[in-house]
Structure prediction request, 1262 residues.
Amino acid sequence: MTEAISSLSSTAISETHGDGKRRGFWSLACQRFRDDGVGMASLIIVAAFFVVVLLSMSGMAASGWNKEVAIHDAPPDLWGLLKPAAPTAMKSLAQRVEEETKNAAQAQSKEALPPLTVTDPLAETLQALNASEETSTAKKEKRASLPFGGDRWGRDVLSKTIKGTQTSVIVGLSAALLATFLGTLLGALAGYYGGRTDDALNWFYSVFSAIPYLLLILAVAAVLQQRGVTTVILILGLTGWAGVFRLIRAEYIKHRGRDYVQAAHAFGVPDRRILFFHILPNVSHVVLVNISILAVGFIKAEVILSFLGFGVKVDEVSWGSMLNDAQSELILGRWWELVAAGGAMALLVTAFSLLTDAMRDALDPKIQRTS
Amino acid sequence: MTAPASSPLFSVEHLSVAFRRRRQPSFAAVRDVSFTIDENETVALVGESGSGKSVTALAMMGLLPKYNVEMASVSRIVYRERDLLRCSDDERRRLRGADMAMIFQEPMTSLNPVFTIGYQIAEVLRLHKGMSAAAAQARCIELLDEAGLPEPRRALARYPSQLSGGQQQRAMIAMALACTPRLLIADEPTTALDVTVQKQIVELLKTLKARHRMSILFISHDLALVGELADRIIVMRHGEIREAGDTQQIFSAPRDRYTQALLQCRPRLDETPSRLPTIDDFMAASQESVEKKARALSPLTPLPPRERGTLSPLLEVDHLKKSFFKREGLWRRYEIPAVKGVSFTLRRGETLGVVGESGCGKTTLGLTLLRLHHATSGAVRFDGQDVLTLSEKAFMPYRRRMQIVFQNPYASLNPRFTVGQSLLEPILLHRMASGRQAATALAFDWLYRVGLDREAFDKYPHEFSGGQRQRIALARALTVEPELLICDEPVSALDVSVQAQILNLLKDLQEQLGVSYLFISHDLAVVRYLCDTVMVMRDGEVIETGDVESLYRNPQDAYTRQLLAAVPHSGIRGQASEA
Amino acid sequence: MTAYIIRRLLQMIPTMLGVVLLLFVLFNWVGGDPAYILAGKNTGEAQIANIRHQLGIDRPAYVQIGIFIKQIVTADFGASWSTNEPVSDILKTRLGPSLTVMVPLMVLGTLLAIALSLIVARFRGSLTDRMVMVACTVGMSISILVYIIVFQYVFAYRLGWFPVQGWGDSLWKNLTTFAALPILIGLCVGLAPDLRLFRSFMLDEIDQDYVRTARAKGLSEARILWIHVLRNASIPIVTYVMAALPGLLVGAFLIERFFSIPGIGREVLLAVERSDFPVIKAITVYVAAATMLANLAADLIYKAVDPRVELK
Prediction:
């Protein structure tokens, strides 16, 4: 049956070429991708996130994320779709006082709140600065509600979410590129040359893979006293190459025995050219899919690191630090920061994962979707 | 309805099978195929890849996937007055394994790797016959013994990976025969096996058929093989039946042109024609194909006529040895010799055939000669120079003078390179032309010589058929004008009708270029057609070497005789001089 | 077999040395002078020198590595920098709670994922299959933090079904009351990725030739799936589960932190926050050793479940 199917797909290929167009691997893959509805939809969502990141980086969006634009804990109105009725706000205020007294006792016994997450002195001076900058005019114009609500200092949750998106996407992609570059380079050398080179690189790999990933990240985070986006990228990128290494090494071992590589050897084509010009294009789809998988993993990891206080600096914002704020806010009934940060992340990661799946399907015609 | 006495066991009526595809019209794999199988009859379905023969068999078994298959409403598959296509899934399932059984091309992957042979056979018995575990085991031993598996009692506890290919296929046969089915469908059961094992399996099937009075549907691409056991032959092409008739009639008086072509374009053991007729000669003798042939034949660099035996030796191999090493125990490594001290000489412009079954070391030999494997010991003198001792840099000129063509044309071209890129690389690397323009012109020239159009230059390998890809691989090897070309099973992966074209091309190119071939093959008939001298290998050693004519006519070694005897030729021999 | 095990154990030595070297470089050079971290910001030079001498970091690097190795071999990492508790005591007392949560979580999670993946694989390509797969992708995309925060809030704070946090001395009480919600959260978080992965293992097997043979034998679809396919798919599943085993020792950092479970994971987080290097080093080294042993065990089990494998 496999024979029947494969002969079928080969005829399918030769028939699509009846129109006389020459089609390489990538244009065929693109064509398959375009036929995938879910893949295209997720591509659009991911692209939208990238546009938001660009706007945010250029300062055209969310530049004033740390300004107090609304009253404390301003409820969300979703541009008027939700009705933040005044009594509700009053009730929640009353509730808040009540709950806060109730929780005070709990909080003492509770170690769950890490010391770092409580208001940082630096942040407060920063806010004081911002507040003084805007002086009394801002105070007058403070809004009672915001589209996505406000946090406990009256900052716009929507702006924070956008800034958080910027952090996540930049960290996820940069770290993924770094890790994939390292893993691909080392994996290619180890797999292609074998022998001593392979032994040495494999030893290096086994050292890194002997330590569970999250533990390794935490150990590095413990040592690096500095916090910030660059540090997070370096931590994730320098520790995350091992998986790519294993995959690419296996691919190179597979390909170095293939006839087309043997043929290149028979002509005396130099090793470097075989490594990067002959074999690399044949494993490039593995590399590409891996960047995507790693980016998803790193976005998740960054959120956890920042939540724990080992990630971004206190004057930067990340979905992780937002979730940290949201944790204490939820107990007071303020759910919107949790929903905003958690939802934005879930949307991006879902779209990114579905995009990865679609990419994998498009790049590997042998795995045929059965539908 | 009362069935007449002569009612066939199985009848396939107007079977049409199509596969649904995404955003494309359905692909018609089988079109309006009708035939019958009588009791105790062997019917052969013969055709090349894509002929629909396997799909027909799977449809009979009810093993086609449901989600993308369309069958015509007039199609019927009748067994014992029941139309199987209109039976429930459950009814069909009860017939499978009991009334009709099937064996497949790849016994290795067709057996479940993690269960013992005994378990897998007993499973059938317990399911269909409701046997107890003990009874099933006793029956298993009988079955394995009947299938000719040595030490059947011990074989029960073996896993498929612990058996050889031939033994695996015997186990498959034992499993298929467990419930003494009325029909056995054998889908290319010997294609993955060596020729001597193939003969044994065919003999086994014949014996079992006679003993159990069952019917066999034998599917194969090999007309000569089918002639050994079939009562009737059905020739298929592109999903349609081209011709059906008694075996005798198909071989002695084939009516269809395609059948004639299939019979003629295979090289034979008993005679050496100067050229093989190709499928085009029979099918569409159009103007275009004649032109193509003429152009491939026109000598580009006329050579002086050569005299056999007076030519200087090009390649002298002296006690060449190649071993692989495997680790065992704590520190020990033990040696697995693949080539054990092989010596031979190849003269300029001649072709040496290296013949042997799988695992005899013939491919390793070829790769070691080119230093694609490191030789363990021995010497290889090319044009008087020992090339094994040279540094990689000093060996570089010899990389131009010695080239190789591989077996699988699907794997030997870089899938991400256009044909042009594949051809230009060696040309530029070895400075066969100065400048890119001249190199491109040269590449066009080579495409032309192997019978391909200019348009091929910008295409990717997957846009070509197997035969065309092998032409491209050949062109790529020849761009550097080698003096020695190692051909490692260059036609084994190709359809019969394409094989003839490539073999003719190889012969033409040798005439024109004077290149020497080291032709590695398991196919004695092909070697006979192409080679001047033959070397028979077994277990890494040379068994016998000699001139083609005398070796085939009068083989000295018992193993050579065994090999020659195993080649199926029954049907063809009778009508050698006809057509 | 014995020769294989011995060789593998010997091969662990260079890897272990590599881990030691990595940690040494990380904690002694990349992280700056440990003496300053230990002593705090405002300490006199003399005191720093004293600490340096006590830690042995005024001696050459090879001596220091020697000390480190000796610490590993004798299992004596000295005392924690922040609590002065011996590190070995910390490890001993923290292991139990981690395992109490992780062992049931892993067993239940694996069984659940296998059963569900077989059911999903049976309906592959159908709408159900696609919906389940999309649901899995969405489920995997929600941060584990969100799961924990929401579950803790809803089931503990609001509904009061479980204690918000805490830990006792009785194993049974821990399992039934304190670990219940953490295990539930762990199952919810882990199910989606496991299900997706196991389903892909099943689908890899479903396309194999031997499945066609099984159909040709007339076996029922259920038998094909539960006997033939599952037996083959168990090979990658075992490999995957074995690879996850060392994670048992570390526990789930976040769950332990949120629920104040005194396990190794929470200890690591505390140590990282307090720059308590001896604790981090000790945990890392032992978990690395456990990982290597688990890998060896995985290969041996692999050999047991797959007759094709030859140990080299």
Observations:
- Chain C has a mean pLDDT of 83.
- Chain C touches chain A through 58 residues (CB under 8 Å).
- Residues 19 and 288 of chain C are 8 Å apart (CA to CA).
